[in-house]
Amino acid sequence: MFDFIIVGAGLAGVTFAHTLEKHGKSFCLLSDRSQAASLIAGGVYNPVVLKRFTPIWRAEEVSALAEQFYAEIEAKTQHSFRIPMPVCRKFASIEEQNNWFTAADHPLLSAFLSATIRYETNPALPTPFGLGQVQHTGRLEVKDYLSVSLREWESQGVYHSRTFDYEALEIHATHIAYQGVTARNIVFCEGCGIEKNPYFCTLPMRPCKGETLTFSAPDLQLDYLFKSDGVLIPLGNDTYIVGATYDPEDLSEAITEQAREELTEKLRKMTSVPFEVLSHQAAIRPTVGDRRPLVGAHPLHPHLWVLNGLGTRGVLNAPYCAQMLYQAVFEGKEIPSEMDVARFQKRLGFKKKSSHK
Q1: Of 45, 51, 177, 262, which is the most buried if we count CB atoms within 10 A?
Q2: How far apart are the C-alpha atoms of 337 and 252, rounded to whole Å?
């Protein structure tokens, strides 16, 4: 009997599998890879919201745990997945500079925001008011992280590429069973595929489509993540990603001409160098109405768990959420209330017992 069946092999599922493996727990991982958000993600890890110069949710805890987690996985797999590089935010005015200095004095931000303005000498990136530099940032090669992990587990016989059949799930008092496989628990890490899940489909997911362009620009010569009208992400070999769009209305995974024009316009605002578009990608982000992850057990079925809603900062959120889930299952610790699915218990068909007689 496995400790867990994991459904979904994106950032959430793979990171939880690594967390189980670290602690000597057994698992069987199932996925048809139909949710592409993790596969085309830019993989940026940045603990600061650069629109408002504020820390992300639980910035210090989340960042420290992510740093430790990915270092351990790199050592275990003998692969390097992280590419450390600063994130630089272009200032539009002296006022923005002053706001940056104020933010850099904040106890939660002083470790991340450089108090020195960076002035760009690259003529391809005009920055008359300079740049604010965020430290302890970079990019995770998400596709490599997932594929290296899954190849190893496939060779061990614990990863299977298949679509999950909810009707075949048998729920017992002490365990679950699925197509001849038994486990003490099952966790659903399906991203936007949660809408087909009969146990968790009522959770308030707010899917949001994102599109990016991959382009070549030999004259750009950029070696850091550049944030201005959009975001420029260096991939090496003079190739970059510009992104991303946010569209909560069109939830198809088809690329659109409208997004291509929007991203091209953003790129032209940021730099005047010539570029060639190499590819155009689209995926649906698994975001939640209150912008917090979804972690916890189904109120009626204690062996059914969910790990979802990592949003736009999945690289940072995944290790933290995976650890919180692990500690809840095996150590009896409470999941932080702001991410616990218990906050949506009425949506899951469960109501607290009335206290009156």
Answers
A1: 45
A2: 32
d(CA 171, CA 339): 25
Statement to judge: residues 197 and 327 lie in one domain: yes
β-partners of residue 70 are none
For strand 138-140 and strand 159-161, is the pairing parallel, antiparallel, or unpaired?
A: unpaired
What pLDDT score was predicted for residue 354? 32
For the purposes of burial, counting CB atoms within 10 Å of the CB of 39, is it exposed (0-12), middle (13-18) or buried (19 or more)?
middle
Omega of the bond leading into 244 within 30 degrees of 0 (cis): yes
Structure tokens at 342: 């218990």
Q: How far apart are CA 302 and CA 332, in angstroms?
A: 13
Residues 185 and 225 in one domain: no
Per-residue pLDDT tens for 185-237?
999 999 989 999 999 999 998 888 899 999 999 999 999 999 998 899 999 99
Q: How do the residues of the chain divide into helix, strand and coil, expressed in percent and rounded to 5?
A: 30, 25, 45
Q: Which residue has the tokens 């005015």?
A: 93
If asked whether residues 214 and 281 sit together in one domain, one would say yes
Q: Are residues 245 and 280 in the same domain?
A: yes
Number of domains in the chain: 2
293 and 192 fall within a common domain: yes
Residue 311 lies in a domain: yes
Residue 64 is assigned to a structural domain of this protein: no
Angle at CA of residue 120, ends 119 and 124, nearest 5°: 155
Task: Assign 252 a pLDDT band (cuts: 50, 70, 90).
Answer: confident
Q: Domain limits at 213?
A: 208-285
* Residue 190: Cβ-neighbour burial (10 angstroms; 0-12, 13-18, 19+): buried
Give per-residue pLDDT as tens, 150-184: 999 999 999 999 999 999 999 999 999 999 999 99
Note whether 236 and 171 are same-domain residues. Answer: no
pTM, entire model: 0.93
Copy the structure tokens of residue 142: 């998400």
- Compute the distance between CA of residue 72 and CA of residue 143 in angstroms, rounded to an integer: 18
Identity of the amino acid at 140: L
Please report, in angstroms and rounded to a whole number, the separation of the first and last CA atoms in the chain: 43
Tell me, yes or no, whether 33 lies in a domain. Answer: yes
- The 3-state secondary structure of 78-116 reads CCCCEEECCEEEECCCHHHHHHHHHHHCCCCCCCCECCC
